[in-house]
Amino acid sequence: MENVRRIVSSGSPLEPRIGFSRAVRTGPYVVVAGTAPIGEDGSTVGPGDVYAQTVRCLDIAERALRDAGASVGDVVRTRLLLTDVTRWEEAARAHGERFAAVRPACTVVEVSRFIDPAWLVEVEADAVIGRETADL
């Protein structure tokens, strides 16, 4: 098994400024960093809309997974970080649409805020490429 460390960039101007990668792959492991609802033009997608922001975060995370050689089916853990946990069902609906068949371990937590106050949610994902799935 090859253990080369490979970084994936989303092109965000924050990556070099903060010193992080959208995703990192080492061997079969892929870790996607906290992903914010940033549009192609750099603006916040879906202001005030947790569901729309979660969908955007998941789209960015899924692209990072693909760029690292993984897929949604390889995801073993996700984290939904919300500035208002009482709105968890809006984020959970988007998560369920993407992961209903995969059913990764998932944690939903409330945070005080993000870098941009317009962001209501961020998503993280961890994947293991090539694993077998079995129901227990």
Q: What fraction, in percent, of the residue positions are helical?
A: 25-40%
**Most strands sheet:** 6 strands, mixed
Structural class of the secondary structure composition? alpha+beta
Rg (CA only): 15 Å
Sequence of strands across the biggest β-sheet: 1-2-3-6-4-5
Number of distinct beta strands: 6
Task: Tell me the series of helices and strands, N- to C-terminal.
Answer: EHEEHEHEE
DSSP strand (E) fraction? Answer: 25-35%
- Average of the residue pLDDT scores: 93
Cα separation of the termini: 27 Å
Apparent shape: globular
Low-confidence stretches: none
Task: Describe the structure concisely for a colleague.
This protein has a 6-stranded mixed sheet, with helices on one face.
Task: Describe the secondary structure blueprint for this structure.
Elements: E1 5-8, H1 14-18, E2 23-26, E3 29-35, H2 50-67, E4 75-82, H3 88-99, E5 105-110, E6 121-128
Parallel strand pairs: 4-5
Antiparallel strand pairs: 1-2, 2-3, 3-6, 4-6
What would you note in describing this structure?
The chain is of the alpha+beta class and 136 residues long. Helices cover 26% and strands 27% of the residues. The protein is built from three helices and six strands; from the N terminus they run βαββαβαββ. A six-stranded mixed sheet has the order 1-2-3-6-4-5, with helices on one face. β4 (75-82), α3 and β5 form a beta-alpha-beta unit. The radius of gyration is 15 Å and the shape is globular. The model has no long low-confidence stretch (mean pLDDT 93).
